[in-house]
């Protein structure tokens, strides 16, 4: 009774990656082999599986490629073009698209693609700033309205209704009139005009999660309401807001380009996407490329942001 119930075999020896051992009690010490089984597909890396699923969405890959290219233009424009965006050669004025000038040249002999690439920095920075202003302001107001409710909810949402009742471009023009011209003021105006959409989406998401069990448990545990809002409610409600931010970035590009087209942006000769189209409209019959090609790139950027926004929304619905 003092012997152990289970004694490991002393003649067990691992000889290679293929498991080979001598079975205890086998005649003549016959060797038994056991080949490792392949790893099931279900336990492969989830990140690799997600990457393979993205490869099945060519439209999403194309949208990401377009935005990545435009962002690269804004970060390092001199890498993508050897031409100056301000100074040109009069002998090359109004040249049609060619291998040397893919987007042609303008009335002063400046390369249109070079001006568009350098102008992407100003336009994208202004669009990003507008989205950050709208997202930060609208999300904060929506959080407060959806969680506190009562008088706070009524006051905030009625003010958002007033903003929604005014066309966004008209409201932006009104704000610019008070702030003055310039790209920074355009970004602020477009951001404030887009606040209401973020506030309404955030409020609806907060209302749907505010009564969840873990929120009630946080309240009963004595947590303060700012901690509950920013640590519990916000992470659960942020996904649809981020999807809206993606599509609002495209809308901001359109709005800033439109205001720049009207002459409210950076003063010439600084390149901006809307200003480039405005400069080319006087030569539309003789040099169609001055407006058509930059306009097509703007359309591609807006459609790309809409595709990425739809993908983010689908991921949020699945989760």
Structure in a nutshell:
The protein is an all-alpha fold and 319 residues long. Helices cover 65% and strands 3% of the residues. Helix 2 packs across helix 4 and helix 11 (273-280) packs antiparallel against helix 12 (289-318).
Written overview of the protein:
The protein is mainly alpha-helical and 319 residues long. It has a domain at 124-265 and 306-318: Orthogonal Bundle (MetI-like fold), CATH 1.10.3720.10. 65% of the residues lie in helices and 3% in strands. It has helices spanning 46-55, 58-75, 77-80, 112-148, 150-165, 168-179, 183-193, 195-209, 213-220, 225-261, 273-280, 289-318, and strands at residues 19-22, 31-34. It has a two-stranded antiparallel ribbon with strand order 1-2. A hairpin with an 8-residue loop joins strand 1 and strand 2. Helix 4 (112-148) packs antiparallel against helix 10, helix 5 packs antiparallel against helix 8 and helix 9 (213-220) crosses helix 10. It starts with 18 loop residues before the first strand and ends with a helix.
Sequence of secondary-structure elements = EEHHHHHHHHHHHH
Helix percent band? 55-70%
Low-confidence stretches: 8-33, 39-44
> What percent of residues are in strands?
under 5%
């Amino acid at each position: 009774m003092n012997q152990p119930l289970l004694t490991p075999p002393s003649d067990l020896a691992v000889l290679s990656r293929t498991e080979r051992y001598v079975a205890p009690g086998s005649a003549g010490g016959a060797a038994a082999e056991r080949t490792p089984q392949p790893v099931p597909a279900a336990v492969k890396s989830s990140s690799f599986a997600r990457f393979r699923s993205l490869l099945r969405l060519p439209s999403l890959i194309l949208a990401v490629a377009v935005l990545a290219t435009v962002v690269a233009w804004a970060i390092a424009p001199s890498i993508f073009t050897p031409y100056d965006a301000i100074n040109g050669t009069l002998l090359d004025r109004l040249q049609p698209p060619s291998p040397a000038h893919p987007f042609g040249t303008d009335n002063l002999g400046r390369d249109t693609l070079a001006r568009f690439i350098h102008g992407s920095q100003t336009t994208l920075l202004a669009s990003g700033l507008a989205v950050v202003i709208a997202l930060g302001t609208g999300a904060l107001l929506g959080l407060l309205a959806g969680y506190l409710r009562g008088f706070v909810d009524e006051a905030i949402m009625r003010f958002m209704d007033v903003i929604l009742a005014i066309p966004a471009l008209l409201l932006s023009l009104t704000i610019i009139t008070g702030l003055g011209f310039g790209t920074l003021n355009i970004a602020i105006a477009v951001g404030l005009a887009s606040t209401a959409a973020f506030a309404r989406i955030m409020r609806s998401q907060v209302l749907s999660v505010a009564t969840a069990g873990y929120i009630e448990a946080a309240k009963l545990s004595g947590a303060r309401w700012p901690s509950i809002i920013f640590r519990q409610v916000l992470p659960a409600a942020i996904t649809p807001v981020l999807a809206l931010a993606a599509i609002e970035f495209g809308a901001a590009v359109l709005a800033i380009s439109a205001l720049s087209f009207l002459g409210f942006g950076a003063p010439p000769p600084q390149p901006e996407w809307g200003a480039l189209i405005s400069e080319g409209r006087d030569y539309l019959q003789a040099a169609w490329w001055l407006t058509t090609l930059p306009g097509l790139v703007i359309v591609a950027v807006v459609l790309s942001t809409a595709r990425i926004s739809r993908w983010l929304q689908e991921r949020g619905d699945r989760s």
